Amino acid sequence: MKNMFEGIIKQAEQLLKENKNNEAIELLRCKESPNDAVLCSLLARAYFQRGDSKGDTYSAHFFAERAVHLGHEDNRVRSILALTSFRKEEYQQAVDIFSRYVNSSSPSATQFMYGMSLLYNHQAGEAVDWLKRAVKLDQHNEMYAKALKIAQEQRENGGKIVFAEVPEAGAQPDALSKKRGLADSPQDFYWLSKNIPCQEACPAHTNIPEYLRAIYDGDYEKAYLINLKDNVFPAILGRVCARPCESECRHGWDGLGTSVQICFSKRAGADLRQDKPVILNILYPPSGKKVSVIGAGVAGLTAARQLALYGHSVTVYEKHNRPGGMLNQGIPIFRLPREIIDREIDQIRQLGVEIKCNCAVGKDISLDTLINTSDAVVMSAGTVRPNILNLPGKDLSGIRHGLDFLLQVNEFDAREIGKNVVVIGGGFTAMDCARTAKRLGAESVKVCYRRSTKEMLVTPGEIEELEHESIPLDLMVTPCGYKGSNGKVTHVTFIKTKLGEPDASGRRKPVEIPGSEYDEPADTVLLATGQFPDTAWIGQSLSDKLVDDDQWLKSGKSVTTQVGKIFAAGDFATGARSLIDAIGHAKECARAVDAYLMNKKRIKDVARIVDATGTGRIREMDFVDYQQMPTIDLDKRSLTAEVETGFDKTLAVDETQRCYLCHYKYEIDSDICIYCDWCIKAKPRPNCIVKVKELIRDEHGRITGFVRAKEHEDTQLIWINQEDCIRCNACVDACPVDCISIQKVSLDTCRACDVDAELNKD
Amino acid sequence: MPQKPDLTQIEIDKLTIDPNIDFREIAERPFEKISKNELGMFKFSGVYHQLQTGFFMIRLRLPGGLMTSEQLEKAAELSDLYAQSQLCITTRQTLQYHWIRQQDIYKVMDAMKEVGIITTNACGDVTRNVVACELQGVCPHEVCDTRSKLLEIADDEELLHIQRNLPRKHKISVAGCGRACGQTLMNCQGWYPVVRTVNGREEIGWRFHAGGGLGGLPRMGRLIFDWVPDNLVLEVARASTEAFRRLGDRRNRKYARLKIVIDRLGAGDYGNAVLEIMKDRGIKGIEKIEKASGLKPDVGYYFVDGQPYIEQKQKGFFSVRAMIKRSELSADESRQFAAWARIYGNGEIMFTARQNLHIRHVPEAKVEALRTEMKKAGFRVDGFERIPDAVSCVGTTVCNLAVSDTPKTYHEIVRNFADDKEFWDKIGHLCINMNGCPNSCGQHWIVDIGLRGRRIRKSVGSEEGFTVHVGGALTGEGSISQPVFDVRSTDVVPALKSMLELYLAERNANTETFYSYVHRIGFEELQKKLTAIIPGTEPVNVRNQELKSVFQQIVDEA
Hints:
The structure holds two protein chains of two kinds.
Chain A: H1 6-17, H2 21-31, H3 37-50, H4 56-69, H5 75-87, H6 91-101, H7 108-120, H8 124-137, H9 142-157, E1 181-183, H10 186-195, H11 197-201, H12 208-216, H13 220-231, H14 234-240, H15 244-248, H16 262-271, E2 290-294, H17 298-309, E3 313-317, H18 326-329, H19 338-349, E4 354-356, H20 367-373, E5 376-379, E6 385-386, E7 399-401, H21 402-412, E8 420-424, H22 428-440, E9 444-448, H23 462-468, E10 473-474, E11 477-485, E12 488-502, E13 508-512, E14 518-521, E15 524-527, E16 531-532, H24 540-546, E17 566-568, H25 571-574, H26 579-598, E18 603-612, H27 649-656, E19 664-668, H28 678-682, E20 689-697, E21 703-708, E22 717-720, H29 730-734, E23 740-751, H30 752-761
Parallel strand pairs in A: 2-3, 2-5, 3-4, 5-17, 7-15, 8-9, 8-15, 9-10
Antiparallel strand pairs in A: 1-18, 6-16, 11-12, 12-13, 12-14, 18-23, 19-23, 20-21, 20-22
Chain B: H1 9-16, H2 23-28, H3 36-41, E1 47-49, E2 55-59, E3 66-68, H4 69-82, E4 86-89, E5 95-101, H5 105-114, E6 131-132, H6 146-154, H7 157-162, E7 172-174, E8 189-198, E9 201-210, E10 222-229, H8 233-247, H9 258-265, H10 267-280, E11 290-291, E12 309-311, E13 317-322, E14 328-330, H11 331-344, E15 348-351, E16 357-363, H12 364-376, E17 391-392, H13 406-417, H14 421-427, E18 432-435, E19 449-457, E20 462-470, E21 482-488, H15 492-506, H16 514-521, H17 523-533, H18 540-557
Parallel strand pairs in B: 6-7, 7-8, 17-18, 18-19
Antiparallel strand pairs in B: 1-2, 2-5, 3-15, 4-5, 4-14, 8-9, 9-10, 10-11, 12-13, 13-16, 15-16, 19-20, 20-21
Helix pairs in contact in B: 4-11, 8-10, 9-10
InterPro entries (chain B): NIR_SIR_4Fe-4S (IPR051329), NiRdtase/SiRdtase_haem-b_fer (IPR005117), Nit/Sulf_reduc_fer-like_dom_sf (IPR036136), NO2/SO3_Rdtase_4Fe4S_dom (IPR006067), NO2/SO3_Rdtase_4Fe4S_sf (IPR045854), NO2/SO3_Rdtase_FeS/sirohaem_BS (IPR006066)
Domain Nitrite/Sulfite reductase ferredoxin-like (chain B): 50-115, 310-376
GO molecular function (chain B): 4 iron, 4 sulfur cluster binding; heme binding; metal ion binding; oxidoreductase activity
């Protein structure tokens, strides 16, 4: 009798031929309840061919059995039934079914599997015959040969059948070298650097997630203390930091929204706490060593503070009448109120650091004298040699360097400004010059820069503020000369540019477009075109050893120099960089000085691993938008009125809850995990928990990536991918066997003796 | 301000999708047009989407596990038509179909309704099928007519049709006496009747336990009220359900069940909350309810323990037991049992929590004839509550959650142990239950040996296996089984054999049960002893991976 489903059967067969198994199942399922023998046989085949999920083997076996039961038993159904029986380890059934259709002229693979079924059914003697024939038919097949060998051995000696032996799984692949406590292996530091991108990006390695959480919890004192310890000037940096951390923040990665406003939050931590000064604990008792620091800018003060904490006696020599360097001289008051600077410098003084102002080294006191009277000297004199563009007309009056302009305004109350001001440059100084000039009453202020906004080295939000204050920004133009009359500048000649290949800094180089010159009217030109270290004050005898022909230090960016007891910190060594760069460099310098003075490393970095029960984060926090910094109205803006007013408590909570708290490590103990996938079902993000076939490690054994598993059997691990984890605890809540641990992992800087004692204790 | 967690998706679904799904409309809709959320809400009508896309499981609502021959025949007929001629007995005393297509769901539901069986609330965040002890109505120890009390609760309008948005599933048991057969301690609400004499007059009241539950976080029920007057049982059941509705955590499903509410509040405060609701509802006679005031549950030992048939309280009649292999009944077998129930008994079939069945009201003279027939038809009629009487969930065969193939392991265990009557007789009471995932459909937490599915990491991939738990029971205050070792699926039989041989060698006299032995020596000690003796074999996952290329070739060659 013709099958009433002939049409469906034909279609299904075609789909199966094309390996479109899901479509075949759908078709066979849809038309009629699959109670027909042929439909069942086709369903068996579809599930068998699909075979990539749990249940497929069962379904194939089930429908093959149904097909046989309903009267359809061809060799294909038999083969499916036999193979699924074998997979289900029902070897007797596999043997029974193979025996119904396999004979000595069957193809090699079929004879091989019949042999395998016999072998696993403890019928090695009979297995050998079938396997021999399979080998004969396909002499190059190693699998057949191996099976034959096993069967022959089994027949001769009995014993265990092991077709595919693999070693037992090794130890649980931990992310860190230790379960808890202090750890200092490369694996631990690698984890920290890879998984806490903001902290890694901060030159001072500030424990950012921890202080953001403290702010969220309303513990502003803790937040301030963390910052103070790590970056020395929390309230100052909370206003003017270059924020390298924010560009690395995971919240700003593709598809994840906008970076957390780390800097503004830091400021909230400082603003919302009490005004009482915080004096850090001295780490080591007085060493009796004396250190002189040249320059009381951020680098000098940072080095001085660190050295004081290490127990040394420190004197800072500053040529200006007050300490702070660029903080006072370069940054306008409307961005950084001076009492903030004074307060944080005072905290350094209270640690015993002596700051001698109005004392220029090389003039009021010689470097030689300092060397002779100190055990070490740190040169941190900043970058005060302006980069004057060597263009036609550069000597016309009205052209001056921006740093000098800011110094005069900020330190000496100068108030003169022209009508038409052109600021040349695209960095922090350019922004400050333009906004200061505007406040001084210039009718027209314009910033001209040779690249695009993308290449500008400014703090996020500064370009917006420029626009807000109606200061135009001309991009892709570079000056090529000045014009003037009566010795005074009247115009700047610009030429238009286009972006070329990246230069050494990684930024795309501006290429001039011939014939595109034009004149821009100007009676004041402020050059914000960079500055270099001034080494002229170093006496001749030392200059030969320390300074190169180009007036830069011979030691480059290093914290040490050619002279053992002389060290260099901050911009003076590295060239003009950001405040936080200078702080990071100065901290490194202080450690080198301490090691030199004490003849050993007394300060160590460690990973501190502490058990935690949760983070308090929930998925909904990811969808909170970033908070805008409140500012004062335009009509209230002056040279001294601070523009940004800071987050209040509500805004601080709103912003800090966005932090992913990357310093929390969620890890599955694969020895306890039962692979139930409940965490995978609960996961909020596509890649936060993954089924892994294999972890990829580098030559040091550190986990650098993973290979996804395709099916259950090749899943070696269920693995939490820290990069995508949002610390929401959903997996922990879902896990039925409590195999997910949560730990806080922090980079800590401690006394080496304490670290060694704890590590030895372990 | 700090963000608050949103409602979980299922809570939103419960508010936005009518649980009374129109399955005639569903039958017309292409599968891909059914949303995941709707699929979730199918459960409230007893319908689950099974592992195989487009196929469904339908669970019946069968209060107390009692069915008539007529009903079973209808179920068999429908399974022939729509469910590959298969029926499955569940651990909550009901039947379920697998392999139902979406086009056929309403057909099964309508046809079952015709014989008085609905599927409403068989699954979902509702009061589920109310269970009883397997001898309810016939047990010589039954204190009173508990069947009518069970039906009063099961068919209550408020519990069945109004309370359909609970924070999580809610399970009720009504036992016939204070023994463990009714699984009092593992249900959200556990009831059993007690008798006391006041002024020389016998009074019947009920003990009310709450907060039991298995799943991933097993808890034993606590005694809430030591005495509930018979006429207030339904009111307490309603108020307790309402208290759960109000107090359950809807933001986190793992912590949503009543057991967690009671964990949080304590039994005393929970009891107060229930009484407060009753007071608000104006229920009279609340003062007669006696709070447990720190009393602990004290459930007696199982009455049903190994007997192949049990003399009923109705003199001269017996309840005759049949063991159903892996809970699976074919349509033909179902029809056979329906016929036997009619011929030998009163036409009633009772399904049990161990996924077996009883034919009730068999006159003494016919007991042996019925047992002979059943034996001849291939059913086991002995070995109850012994090794052959294992229980398993459906495992990876059709369940989305499972990681291990429990039916296969079940068959392995039965194949290897069931015929060795001398061995399992020597061991005595020993219930083995298996569960393919961390949930507890197979109830592995409450038996002597419980296997819970897991995968075991290998150097290449991972292999299917189990965590073996021991020492669970529903007697006394209840005891949750504890894990003692992990084992690959392939090694379950030799591992169990080794453990049981150890038990036989070390037990005190011949009377110490496995449960007592385990608790005497302690889990840790047992763990240590077992580590040394559990065997290991070849990882099957790796072998199957190596052979994979050959498999398709063979089908093509055929």
